Amino acid sequence: MNIQENISLKQFNTFGIDKKARFFTAVQSVSDLKIALTWAKEKHINTLILGGGSNILLTQDQEALVIKNEITGIELVKEDEKYYWVEVGAGVVWHDFVLTAIQNEWAGVENLSLIPGTVGASPMQNIGAYGVEIKDVFHSLTALRKSDLELQEFDAKSCAFGYRESVFKHELKDKYVICSVIFRLNKVAAYHTDYGAIKATLAQNGIEHLNLKSISDAVIQIRQSKLPDPKEIGNAGSFFKNPSIPASQYESLKADYPEIPGYPNDEGVKVPAAWLIEQCGWKGKRLGEIGVHSKQPLVLVNYGAGDGNEIKKLAEKIQKSVLEKFQIEIHPEVNFL
């Protein structure tokens, strides 16, 4: 096992924040992972597991062994008349898996095209976009328990999925390392085109007969038009979750702000955080080397030499202004480290 010391993590996080890892290694298998965790335990050093680094904000150097999860593999493990069960290594780039699914006509993840990050993070965050969430296609995952290096399987119920939430962000945070995920994908596609601009984009592209690729292409087109490429400008995609508020509060706000968008759900009404942030005047605002994206106020950006603590303070200012103006709390989707 190759353990490096004092390694910059700039290239390993999509914000491009230049913080250091006291120790760093990459693992390509479960046995590699066990060796790395054992080494850290013997040295009494904490561990931090990194996937694509697309949902983290580094605010300090990491006095830990940072383990880059590069466990790969995409394998069809079972099928019946309705479904395919596909096992995917946690280190596989999410969009690469989506493209493989489309190529093989495994339906269900096409609306999740171009989401940054790796497969291992997908159930942890219950990632979602354009009317689809991981929980809709999730079957199970295998994770390594850090305390005794035993593998454990988790089904959907034990993952306790919520909106951009799972048990791995709460009770089991830092206790397990996800090694692989099994998705249950459809043999017959159920196309989701009602969310966002998908229908309009399909029409614009002249698509008359839907297929997985046409849906994926539309989603990619929409995302690229709204979201900055992390290779060009540092960001972690959507920084805040969309809040849900009681229906009574929404109706009260609608009296003052007739144009406020809202989507009824089990918790009341979901209000787009991007709209709230824009109403508070943050869209396109630049503060030195950091700021809020000019096209999508949900995205905080690092123009090059920004620091994680500066972005954290900006996020706190945005939260405060939204709370003061609308009495709505918005919470980060990004994990602060």
From TrEMBL:
What cofactors does the UniProt entry give for this protein?
FAD
- Could you name the active-site residues? 164, 238, 333
- Name the catalysed reactions: UDP-N-acetyl-alpha-D-muramate + NADP(+) = UDP-N-acetyl-3-O-(1-carboxyvinyl)-alpha-D-glucosamine + NADPH + H(+)
Q: Which InterPro entries match?
A: FAD-bd_PCMH, FAD-bd_PCMH-like_sf, FAD-bd_PCMH_sub1, FAD-bd_PCMH_sub2, MurB, MurB_C, MurB_C_sf, Oxid_FAD_bind_N
EC main group:
oxidoreductase
Look up the record and name the pathway of this protein: Cell wall biogenesis; peptidoglycan biosynthesis
Could you tell me which SUPFAM superfamilies the record lists for this protein?
FAD-binding/transporter-associated domain-like, Uridine diphospho-N-Acetylenolpyruvylglucosamine reductase, MurB, C-terminal domain
Per the UniProt record, the source organism is: Algoriphagus halophytocola
Transmembrane helix as a keyword?
no
**Can you give the residue ranges of the FAD-binding PCMH-type domain?**
16-188
Molecular-function GO terms, alphabetical: UDP-N-acetylmuramate dehydrogenase activity
Q: Name one Pfam family in it.
A: FAD_binding_4
E.C. number, please? 1.3.1.98
- Localization per Swiss-Prot or TrEMBL: Cytoplasm
HAMAP family linked to this entry? MurB
Q: Chief location of this protein? A: cytoplasm
Q: Has keyword Protein transport? A: no
Keyword set, alphabetical order: Cell cycle, Cell division, Cell shape, Cell wall biogenesis/degradation, Cytoplasm, FAD, Flavoprotein, NADP, Oxidoreductase, Peptidoglycan synthesis
Family statement: Belongs to the MurB family.
Its biological purpose: Cell wall formation.
For this entry, the protein name equals UDP-N-acetylenolpyruvoylglucosamine reductase
Q: Which gene encodes it?
A: murB
